[in-house]
Amino acid sequence: MASQPQHAIGPRRSTWTHIAFAVKDVEASIAWYERFTHLRLLAQGEDQDGKNAWLGDPTPSENPFILVIGQFYEGHDPFAPAPHHPMGPFAHIGIELPTKEAVDEMAAKAKAAGCLALGPMQMPKQIGYICFLKDPDGNTIEYSYDQGVYEKAREVWGKAKAPV
């Protein structure tokens, strides 16, 4: 283990950086996320225990947030024998789109590919117009329009400020 920091850049305060889950096939998951989301491959690795990848929004950000996926080789899963359950039916990754039509387009694309799980449909105000997709491992990805996340965050916390 390294006793000194291994990276020159890091957060200046506690910050949300990623969500992670196990997958059966890293390459298939990368392809799915690049096809059905705006996420793009940031980094990929492999060691004696398995393969991994980081996917994220390529738009420059002071606070990057990434999806970490890991594929453990047989006999190398440090969490075994505990199973890796997919996120769902309610647990999900949420991606907000700028229009209702964009949600409809994503739902149509997912339906054609056989991965549409729910919707599109209008839900109550704090949920908005949504559809749910399932990734290759059964994890739920929600696409929404008009949830109000941006509006509520700005109302409560204000607009983003330059880092201190």
Main sheet strand line-up: 1-4-3-2
Please report the total strand number as a whole number.
8
- Helical/strand content category: alpha/beta
Q: Report the biggest beta sheet as strand number plus sense, adding barrel if it closes.
A: 4 strands, mixed
Query: What is the tally of helical segments?
Result: 3
What gap, in angstroms, lies between the N and C termini?
Answer: 31 Å
Percentage of helical residues?
10-25%
Taken from the alpha-carbon principal axes, the silhouette is globular
Describe the model.
This protein is of the alpha/beta class. Helices cover 21% and strands 30% of the residues. The chain has 3 helices and 8 strands, in the order βαββββαβββα. The strands form 2 sheets. Strands 1-4-3-2 form a 4-stranded mixed beta sheet, covered by helices on one side. A 4-stranded mixed beta sheet has the order 5-8-7-6, with helices on one face. A hairpin with a 5-residue loop joins β7 and β8. The two termini are 31 Å apart. The mean pLDDT is 93.
